[in-house]
Amino acid sequence: MTTEAIKILSRTLEIYMKYGIKSVTMDDVARELGISKKTLYQYFDNKKDLVFKTVQYYIDLECESIVNIKKASDSAIDEMFSICHFFSQFLRERNPSLMLDMQKYHPESWELFKNHKQTFAYQHVVDNINAGIKEGMYRRDFDIDIVAKLYISRIEAIIDNQLFPYNKYPLMHVVLEMICYHIRGIATPAGMQYLEEKKKTLNLYEK
How many domains does the chain have? Predict the structure, then answer.
């Protein structure tokens, strides 16, 4: 993919995050980017193609960010908090209609996004659990597969915005309650102590 195409995807992602997908036309994208429609169509066949490739672009960014967070984290618990901060930033910046627009009008893109969450995100949680067990922070007496899938289901509930509407529940509050709930359920005494110490360094209820 050319540098220009990547720049278009990066800016399009910002536009979709701000306005959603349904209301944004190819004309709108070209105008916002300051390029001609002819240039836009050199790289993307139609809106469906643009949406799909923008979603793939976001997924690639997310994967890269998660890998970097894992490398920079001192422990499995630190990693989970850092991932949750990254995740909450995405939710905070996106238009509430973004996921619904994708699911309703761009099912191929929705499947791509959903499969990413069910594969990459799932594997991240599994890897984190295994790392935490090796560190002595997490117990061994639970089914890793089930716990990882339960965690992913909680993420999906937050993304859906139905169970915890953002105008009623502060986003950071919900996300951090989720991560603390998850860790408490699998932590060893050492992990619980580390979690409590970690919480003291954070403003868990920052809005």
Answer: 1
Whether residue 113 is contained in a domain is answered as: yes
- Does the pLDDT value for residue 203 go beyond 70? no
The 10s digit of each residue's pLDDT in 121-137 is 899 999 999 999 999 99
CATH of the domain at 108: 1.10.357.10
Where does the chain have alpha helices with state H? Answer: 3-19, 26-33, 37-43, 47-72, 76-93, 98-105, 107-116, 122-135, 144-160, 171-186, 189-200
Mean pLDDT for 197-205 is 73
Flag whether 91 is in a domain.
Answer: yes
Q: Whole domain around residue 55: which residue ranges?
A: 46-200
Specify whether the CB–CB gap between 178 and 163 falls below 8 A: no
Helix pair angle (171-186, 189-200), 10° resolution: 160
Residue 127 forms part of a structural domain: yes
Any idea of the CA torsion for 76, 207, 11, 56, to the nearest 10 degrees? 40
- Whole-number mean pLDDT of the chain? 91
Instruction: Select the more confidently predicted residue: 48 or 92.
Output: 48
Q: How many CB atoms lie within 10 A of CB 155?
A: 17
